Amino acid sequence: MSIVLRQMYQLRATLYKFRPLLMRSAVESRVGPAAVFLDNCKQCGALHVSLSRSLATKKTKVKSKGQPGPRVNINAALVEDIINLNELKQEMLEIIESLKNDYGKNLNIRTSPGALDHITVTTNNEKFPLNHLGQISLKSPQLILVNMMSFPEATMAATKAIRESGMNLNPEVDGTLIRVPIPKVTREHRENLAKLAKQFTNKSKESLRKMRTNAIAQVKKSKDSVSEDTIRLLEKQIQQMADDVVADMEKHLMAKTKELLG
Question: What is the spatial distance between Cα 219 and Cα 231, in angstroms, rounded to a whole number?
Fold first, then answer.
């Protein structure tokens, strides 16, 4: 009997010794290890558990949550059998150049004869630049003339193309001569040009999305010959390249909008 009592006494002492660890595990399972501080009182043998919520830790987590993840930088030469990353990057950059050209040709506050050159005229199921069909000249600071004598049959099609160019122009037809009054620079005109800049940008983004989708589809075709990790890294690289181009587009749009609105 004495042996049994002695063993129970020893077991009790052992449990008491490890009591702080047991209680700590129970508390950590509810509130997390970072928020538990244990203080063992020597005088009374009691265990004080103080719970604390670290505001500094929460702020750090929120800040890091908004930060971009690590960038991917794949050696293009190592994956050229799967996809040509250098060629893809160049094609994406060409979208930006095309957008900048659209800005320059279409979004001038002051309309000039050169601003009409790019306008595409559709006639007989074919498309031609306006300056290939007619002679464009500046009659006065308020009037542009388009002489369609070389292609009189395209006069109405050219007039329609000018009117629908989004440049706030209302051409008038006089035989084979198209008169294009230059609108005054009003606040409404500036705002319309800013909206047009947004439309050009969205159109470029759509072209970029299609390019990104096609590139990722091309990468996935190699899933039987390369590892899943390689596929994921390439997808991330392509998405990263597209994100960089979108960010560049937004910078150009912001600058152009500021220029147009004054």
Answer: 7
* pLDDT, tens digit, 9 for 90 and up, residues 189-220: 889 889 999 999 999 999 999 999 999 999 99
Asked if residue 154 lies in contact with residue 79, where contact means CB atoms within 8 angstroms, the answer is: no
Q: To which residue do tokens 């960089």 refer?
A: 244
What's the one-letter identity of residue 192?
Answer: N
Q: Are 115 and 193 in contact (CB under 8 A)?
A: no
For residue 54 the two structure tokens come to 């670290």
pLDDT digits (tens, 9 = 90+) for 102-132: 888 778 776 677 778 878 999 888 999 999 9
Q: How many residues does the chain have?
A: 262
- Which residues, in sequence order, are CB contacts of 100 under 8 Å at separation 6+? 252
Our measurement of the distance from residue 49's CA atom to the centroid of its chain's CA atoms, rounded to an integer in Å, reads 49
Q: In three state form, how does the secondary structure of the chain look?
A: CHHHHHHHHHHHHHHHHCHHHHHHHHHHHHHCHHHEEEEECCCCCCEEEEECCCHHHHHHHHHHHHCCCCCCCCCHHHHCCCCCHHHHHHHHHHHHHHHHHHHHHHCCCCCCHHHHCCCEEEECCEEEEHHHHCEEEEEECCEEEEECCCCHHHHHHHHHHHHCCCCCCCCEEECCEEEEECCCCCHHHHHHHHHHHHHHHHHHHHHHHHHHHHHHHHHHCCCCCCCHHHHHHHHHHHHHHHHHHHHHHHHHHHHHHHHHHC
Under DSSP, is residue 109 helix (H, G, I), strand (E, B) or coil?
coil
